[in-house]
Amino acid sequence: MIKEGYVKTETHNGITSIEFHHPQSNSLPSKMLEELAQEIHSIAHDDDTRVVVLRSKGEKTFCAGASFDELASIKNKEEGLQFFSGFANVINAMRKCSKPIIGRIHGKTVGGGVGLVAAMDYAIAVEGADIKLSELAIGIGPFVVGPAVERKIGTAAFSYLAIDATSWRNADWAKRKGLYAELHPTLEGMDESVSRLSNTLSHSSLDAIAELKKIFWKGTEHWDTLLLERAAISGKLVLGEFTKTAIQKFKAKSLS
Amino acid sequence: MIKEGYVKTETHNGITSIEFHHPQSNSLPSKMLEELAQEIHSIAHDDDTRVVVLRSKGEKTFCAGASFDELASIKNKEEGLQFFSGFANVINAMRKCSKPIIGRIHGKTVGGGVGLVAAMDYAIAVEGADIKLSELAIGIGPFVVGPAVERKIGTAAFSYLAIDATSWRNADWAKRKGLYAELHPTLEGMDESVSRLSNTLSHSSLDAIAELKKIFWKGTEHWDTLLLERAAISGKLVLGEFTKTAIQKFKAKSLS
Amino acid sequence: MIKEGYVKTETHNGITSIEFHHPQSNSLPSKMLEELAQEIHSIAHDDDTRVVVLRSKGEKTFCAGASFDELASIKNKEEGLQFFSGFANVINAMRKCSKPIIGRIHGKTVGGGVGLVAAMDYAIAVEGADIKLSELAIGIGPFVVGPAVERKIGTAAFSYLAIDATSWRNADWAKRKGLYAELHPTLEGMDESVSRLSNTLSHSSLDAIAELKKIFWKGTEHWDTLLLERAAISGKLVLGEFTKTAIQKFKAKSLS
């Protein structure tokens, strides 16, 4: 159903890999976000899956966030809420999944993508996997992904990212603040670590892991409603003059 | 009204600078704290202000905390509560201000001053801007500023500062713990960054920023009462024998 | 009453040292945990004690966690709950103690031992004092010590330790995440710092310290019940097939 991007799921020896790709720097349109949320829901109840590895395809960017084309086409509050609920649904699926979710972060991540990374249980990254919360630059904010990012890196680091919306924070910063569990100098090092940990977890006690996931995410039970409230904030802001002007500027730039 | 110190406010192109100075190492008597709180309240409703830069004058010290002379003159619980409410009121004004508050931290900060820095949304510091919570050394504690400091650097780092009251933590420690958003090797680097960010924010969406400030400070709604309860703890402890003796020792030392 | 290990308490000049030792790498059987909890309770009401230093004897290991022999002998849920309540009672005694608890961490720490360190108010460690939460490797999890560890190092770092149960995190990681307040290159440096801080605190205001301890541990009032609920989770998991098999493998290994 998705024309240009895909979400691909494969299971081997208890390890399920979910891979996504979109030609526009792995930005995520609503359809792909729906598919991601759906896959994670299914996996939670799949007896063949003991651990999940979330990854993306492509050279430099792990995830560029929400689809800019879709964002530019939002015409009213309902469409705004609908659009920004996309990341909310994926994050909620991840936090409720009883299986551990390992991330393989091979490149830069922006906006909503940082929320995906924050919702992973254990993100393994490579040097160069820098991050940015650029929402404020177009008159919105990281409202939907905020709770997930803040839970991982704390209120201070989250607010620095959100306020300084035009600057990249490098991968080492992201690791020191706790967004990444590990940071490797090479892709090979990262892949060895993803392999080692997913293999170990696939041989661990499912019951113990399910109890661990409960305590890791204890206190986030209200996110089902909170993240939708947050989506409504973004959905309203995106209709303002500031965002319209910012989008026109960006489009003019990319056409010139 | 203030004899020796001043609080000075200037607005240019949407950027409001609040500068304070006191000849005793930028320590803050009650009058100056009142004036600071008042200025921040006014700015929150000033249409010409889109972003605030909080700074102090002088060479080596950003802020030495509460005025020692005033502290030494407290005679009863009411005066104690009144005195320690000074920083509470400034911190509450900062957290409720809908405009982002950038800090320019050009030197050392002690006690209540660390609370001011913690209540900024984005503090930019220079090497040498070391910090200390020295309250315990005179028989009190960082009770009023505690919630702001703990929110920024976490329970662990806050307790280490409070317990080890006679040691400085250097600026790099303060940055790694999250008190500073940025740390620069030179004053020029710090000032360029303050300039860049305040300029960017002055051109950002006011609505988006106001929503961001709400989520940054979500969960602190009870601080209006909490910080006054904390002021009462300090106001009671300061009347004890331990503090009286400590103050006499300090005074004897500074006279000899 | 304890055959192989001991808990020894000594008070000099307001400083009470609690030292424990067990020949099996300072692992802690129930009896020693009871004695530790009892000592901390007594000290809280001892007028001669103004500050506590918690330390262990032996070369390389500060604490290897729960006694493996005892764990292997658990036959039902009641015994499981009883066993895992050991660390819960020590942690609850530490958080309710009105005197500051300094830790001297001279070597590696595993499992429940990491919970002890997390419940200290100020842990001073030496290079090589690496940590591991190995519970998942035997089909259980760091449920009882979780709240104490998470409070100190945050949700992210806690979950990385719990998920990656077979890997050591080095002492520098533990310091950067906030588990250790200080990390020294040498035993001498560590001991000088323990000495300096305990001496300073023994001359500080008891009233101010008691108020500080209250605010440090504010919000943990429910741990009396929470930690026992957590003990019940471990106590149930430990009866499962996964743990039985894991224990047999470990025993076979140590006999070969």
List keywords for this structure.
homotrimer; 256 residues; alpha/beta; six-stranded mixed β-sheet; three-stranded parallel β-sheet; 10 helices; 11 strands; 50% helix; globular
Q: What level of helicity do the residues of chain A show?
A: 40-55%
Biggest sheet strand line-up of chain A: 1-2-4-7-9-11
- Give the strand tally of chain A: 11
Low-confidence stretches of chain A: none
What is the CA–CA distance across the termini of chain A? Answer: 32 Å
What is the subunit arrangement here?
homotrimer
Q: How would you sum up the major sheet of chain A? A: 6 strands, mixed
Structural class of chain A: alpha/beta
Note the beta-strand portion of chain A. 15-25%
Question: Biggest interface: chains and residue counts?
Answer: A-B, 28 and 23 residues
Number of helices of chain A: 10
Mean pLDDT across all residues of chain A, rounded? 95
What's the gyration radius of chain A in Å? 17 Å
* H/E element sequence of chain A: EEEHEEEHHEEHEEHHEHHHH
Shape of chain A: globular
